[in-house]
Amino acid sequence: MKRIKTVIVEDSRLARNELKELIKNHPEIDMVGEAENVDDGVELIEEVKPDLLLLDINMPEKDGFELLEMLDEVPITVFTTAYDEYAIKSFEYNALDYLLKPINEKRFELAIDKVKVKLEASNSETVVNEERLTGSSQIFIKDGEKCWLIKIGDISHLEIVGNYTRVFFQDQRPMLYKSLNQIEGKLPEKHFFRANRQQIINTNFIQELVPWFNGKLKLTMHNGEEVEVSRRQSYLFKDRMSL
Fold first, then answer.
1. Where does the HTH LytTR-type domain start and stop, copy by copy (predicted)?
2. Helix (H, G, I), strand (E, B), or coil: what is residue 158?
């Protein structure tokens, strides 16, 4: 498999050096950068777009959880910390693993094995446009006091609310503070379709489709939400789905 682009964000130089020593035993890992605080870490991650983030939780000013909240696209994350009290919270952020310091070689190896499995699953998807996300790509959403780290493929549909976008997945409907047009350009084209000016749907979540007025279509999604496909988009949808 390809080399795993990896970034370390850790305020302790000693801890960063210890991680780099562990990495030396894994030639498949390509260390592309390190940062000692959240702001520098966010800048580095957005620049190099790593596959793997080794992230400390306790850092001055801002912590590792806040770093994840600042990212548009979250890489595979393995938390590293000296405190076990954050374990449950880390998995609420969908971290792949949680390593307690001091990290021993065997435990680190197990974490890297998990990373390889996850990357292989992601790489199995065909990506037509490398700038687009895949169904297994993760995005972070924070709405009020609640946070989610969700797979793109788990989103049933999205709709405009003012200048922002409401995201529908499972029984949740949080707000993403970006426009629908911004989001549309990154969604995988294979399954996401612009139903009308207000909504984009994931065709995997269509439960029922019926003809509607003036050549339109009406869709019922798995969660019971109804979406009306505009007349122009109905023609495109029928062609795309070979109806």
1. 139-243
2. strand
What is the rounded CA–CA span in Å between residue 72 and residue 66? 12
Q: What is the pLDDT of residues 111-157, one digit of tens each?
A: 999 999 888 766 654 343 446 788 888 888 888 888 888 999 999 99
Quick one: three-class SS letters along 41-101? Answer: HHHHHHHHCCCEEEEECCCCCCCHHHHHHCCCECCEEEEEECCHHHHHHHHHCCCCEEEEC
Number of residues written out for the chain: 243
Q: Does the domain spanning 4-123 belong to CATH 3.40.50.2300?
A: yes
Q: How far apart are CA 8 and CA 54, in angstroms?
A: 5
Residue 196's CB: how many other CB atoms inside 10 A? Answer: 18
- For residue 62, count CB atoms less than 10 angstroms from its CB and return exposed for 0-12, middle for 13-18, buried for 19 or more: middle
Tell me the pTM.
Answer: 0.56
C-alpha span between 71 and 48 (Å, rounded):
13
